[in-house]
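Researcher: Please translate sequence to structure tokens.
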Amino acid sequence: MSAPRHPSMHLADWLLLVVAFVWGTSYGVVKDALAFYPVLGLLALRFGITFVLLSPALRTLSTASRRALGGVLCAGALLLGIFLCETFGVMLTRASNAAFLISLCVVLTPLAEWAMLRRRPSRAEWAAVAVSLAGAWLLAGGDYRPNAGDALILLAALLRAVSVCVTRRVMRDAAVAPLAVTAVQAGCVAAGSAVIALVFARGQWQPLPTLAAHWPFWSSVAWLVGACTLFAFFTQNYAVRRSSPTRVALLMGSEPAFGALFACVWLGERLSVAAWTGGALIVAASLFAVVPWRRTAANRASEAVNA
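Model: Translation complete:
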């Protein structure tokens, strides 16, 4: 028989599915918030609030090694790149497109694992890459030239795959707590967005909307900070320590379905049959990519128990 999974692993799986739902809603919520405030200002506000709330956790990094601290800062820089690409991408494309295209990170993650963690993808995972790319082609309406927003979302998907692997390395150090990693990541995104706005795009740094006259904006900010940042990133960092990057990516594979449904309900977006088919192919590839990997891991565990 195969070795039973630890209860904390099951908890991490369920929490990641909740994160997939929460992040699925974020595309529509960000789209709403950008109607009131520019991209860089919104990122600085969202992650600045998160950093302040989590700053007490930074004291736990005092016992971490220099290598671990460097890895945490690298994870923060990657997250800055991800959110710059994602948020500008959402502004330039449909929220439903963004939700589907970001799921390409699921099939890009095995490739990143191969390059960074020396785990070679199986034939099934290569097949999943092809299926997912076909889905992205259908989602784009059969056009080989994606718009600027879609291209930024695809770049964000690649950065997400690299980020999960880097975070996996960082979380191997027992002295590095998930809350502290989340705090550093938030600080990097907030500081980076503010610097870019002040130096290169001063028009992105504007007075904040008033609470009384713009309560929908502040409601969006509250959801983005509380659910999509504090809860979601802590949970992902917690789960990466207890699983592989590919498994984490798989469990996040339902994010595009939640995102597209939320965009249809919340923003009134409508997708063509071809776009829904493409999105379904991407989600199916996300599931297909990891099933053989999970079975292989289970077989190895079983052999170890029976040896």
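Researcher: Any highlights?
Model: Residues 45 and 281 are 36 Å apart (CA to CA).
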